[in-house]
Design brief:
By secondary structure, the chain is α/β, with parallel strands linked by helices. The protein has 14 helices and five strands. A five-stranded parallel β-sheet has the order 2-3-1-4-5. The model has no long low-confidence stretch (mean pLDDT 91).
């Protein structure tokens, strides 16, 4: 029966699947695949906000009751599938969305992996080029037909806008101080140092991980996401040189750096 639930809300293509598989080396942890649990809770929230039965009762009492319902639902979800001590729940599309998770699960511990933005877009572009006959995980392939790299990057950029808004709002509310941001590049170069940061943030004893033999313990049907190779991890952690300028072109690379200047400044990407 899990004692605590932690959350990972990272950007795409930043090693988020890798860290989940690494955490599963620790026998105390149950690290999830991309999980829809927060979406289930969000759907319940819509019912809670709009149902007359809840509106007719004392608002403060109902708020407390719904908060208890959410926390109980999360623990009940994981109690049914694991007896490990800790859960690391991975959520898609909720990058740095502290306010939402705090509403459902008060005072959460949230880990957010980040990466140099051109490398993220270059990684998505390379996956697209390998799988042009299929749909993209963000937009349908029909939207991509007959497009150029700049147009595809702009389409993917649209899906990043809500995540950047979550991040910006968290910074403005100083909630970023309550989360742990890990740079993908730093993790690849100094994994023990960055992993110790994670354990210290979670306030639990560290575990010795093997970065040269990472087993893919998390299995997902990639056909559901319609983008082959998106969730595959390499068995050995290593840092590859950036090829973003080569993949995207100089103009697109520069546009990305300018568009995400606030993000770059915060995480010191130059």
């Amino acid at each position: 029966m899990p004692d605590k639930i932690f959350f990972q809300c990272s950007l795409p293509r930043v090693g988020s699947t890798m860290i989940q598989n690494l955490m599963n080396q620790d026998p105390r942890f149950y690290a999830t695949a991309n999980n829809g649990l927060l979406n289930l809770i969000a759907a319940a929230n819509e019912n809670y906000k709009n149902s007359p039965e809840f509106k007719a009762q004392n608002a403060e009492i109902m708020k407390l009751a719904f908060s208890g319902f959410c926390k109980g639902a999360m623990h009940g979800f994981f109690n049914s599938i694991t007896d490990r001590e800790y859960v690391l729940d991975k959520s898609r599309g909720n990058f740095a969305n502290y306010k939402m998770i705090d509403y459902y699960y008060p005072n959460p511990k949230i880990i957010c992996f980040v990466r140099n933005m051109p490398d993220i877009f270059a990684s998505i572009e390379k996956l697209f080029r390998k799988n042009q006959y299929k749909s993209n995980s963000i937009v349908k392939h029909a939207t991509m037909q007959g497009t150029s790299t700049p147009k595809r990057v702009n389409i993917w950029h649209q899906s990043f806008i809500p995540m950047m808004e979550y991040f910006t709002n968290s910074v403005r509310a100083e909630e970023d101080r309550k989360m742990l941001f890990i740079k993908y590049e730093s993790f690849c170069l100094n994994p023990d140092i960055e992993m110790n940061k994670i354990y210290n943030y979670l306030e639990i004893e560290t575990f010795k991980h093997d970065y040269t033999n990472i087993e893919q313990t998390i299995k997902e049907d990639e056909e559901v996401y319609e983008y082959t190779g998106m969730l595959k991890i390499r068995p050995k952690l290593e840092m590859n040189p950036s090829d973003a300028k080569l993949v995207l072109g100089e103009d697109v690379y520069t546009w990305i750096m300018r568009t995400y200047c606030g993000y770059n400044e915060y995480f010191e990407y130059k």
